[in-house]
Design goal:
With 307 residues, the chain is of the alpha/beta class. Helix content is 45%, strand content 22%. It is built from twelve helices and eleven strands. Helix 3 packs across helix 4. Pfam families: HTH_1, LysR_substrate. GO terms for molecular function: DNA-binding transcription factor activity; sequence-specific DNA binding. Keywords: DNA-binding, Transcription, Transcription regulation.
């Protein structure tokens, strides 16, 4: 190994990478939790060590020089390698204790995970669980979570995934809304109704259209980025909403529309990082989730009127 080359200062490289990706010292300093002068000194020290200028100033921002662009790809590789170190170390741990982070949508985190975690706590009481309730895809490679429950298949080669099955969703509305606006007799009647949905109304309209639900963006009058808030607006009588059978079938104050039809189906993937899959505590939680969710899906399917 070339030990003189291995003396390369990672803190300086990280300061350069953050500045290059965020475009300014101030933004990079906030991201890394440092002061701007400290970060500036680290970047300057790296330039002195390499004997090249890495940035040109452009107003308040910074632009990479040719040397900076050439260095950037190598430093990104260093960052990816550094991120794999704790993953590999965690993957070798065979202790049935420690923390496991699970990320899932807000609806799944509330309706699905608590009883599953309660059962897990009896099986492995020394494992601590952190639930990251988010509708955004969290980066498992950066340890934003150890295990993810997703509705899309991961494409990253470093991740491993298991398809657990399909969930189902239906259309629901509060009786007060239906008494006021009328109960749709067919899907074509939905075009005249108000809907509660997510913020990206165009995307939601396209998605519903793919399932034969004719909803224009203008009909989605009440919007949110939170699935539970959306559901509460449906319960309050603001309009029709789509919801997973997990929550819809256990909410008594809403009315199921078209009970013999499934409004939509979605895959459920259980995902983790390949390096973590061999850690005993990750494996135990992963396998427990897989079995519990599969059983849950079968139970919901049996209860569904369209099942």
């Amino acid at each position: 190994m070339n030990w003189p080359a291995a003396s390369f200062d990672w803190n300086q490289a990280r300061a350069f990478l953050a500045t290059a990706e965020l475009g300014s010292l101030s933004a990079a300093a906030r991201e890394l939790g440092q002061t701007q002068p400290t970060l500036g000194r680290q970047v300057a020290a790296l330039e002195d060590q390499l004997g090249v200028a890495l940035f040109d100033r452009a107003g308040r921002g910074l632009i990479l020089t040719e040397a900076g662009r050439e260095l950037l790809s190598h430093v990104r590789e260093m960052a990816e390698a550094a991120a794999r170190v704790p993953l590999t170390a965690s993957g070798q741990s065979q202790a049935l204790r420690g923390t496991v982070g699970i990320t899932a949508s807000d609806v799944f985190s509330v309706t699905l995970l608590p009883p599953i975690i309660a059962e897990l706590s009896r099986i492995a009481p020394e494992i601590e669980i952190e639930v990251v309730a988010s509708n955004d895809l969290r980066d498992l490679s950066r340890r934003e979570a150890d295990i993810a429950i997703r509705h899309v298949r991961p494409t990253e080669p470093a991740l491993t995934a298991r398809l657990l099955g399909e969930g189902t969703g239906h259309l629901y509305a509060a009786p007060a809304y239906l008494d006021r606006r009328g109960r749709p007799a067919s899907r074509s009647d939905l075009a005249t109704h108000d809907f509660v949905g997510f913020l990206d109304v165009n995307r939601m309209g396209r998605t519903l259209g793919e399932f034969g639900i004719p909803v224009a963006a203008r009909n989605i009058r009440y919007r949110t980025d939170n699935g539970l808030a959306m559901w509460e607006m449906v319960r309050a009588g603001l309009g029709i909403g789509v919801m997973t059978a997990d929550l819809g079938l256990t909410t008594p104050d809403v009315e199921l529309l078209f009970p013999r039809e499934v409004a939509f189906r979605y895959p459920i993937w259980l995902v983790t990082h390949r390096e973590l899959h061999s850690a005993r505590r990750i494996r135990v939680v992963y396998d427990h989730l897989a079995q519990a969710i599969t059983t849950h899906l079968r139970r919901i399917e049996a209860r569904s009127p369209a099942g």
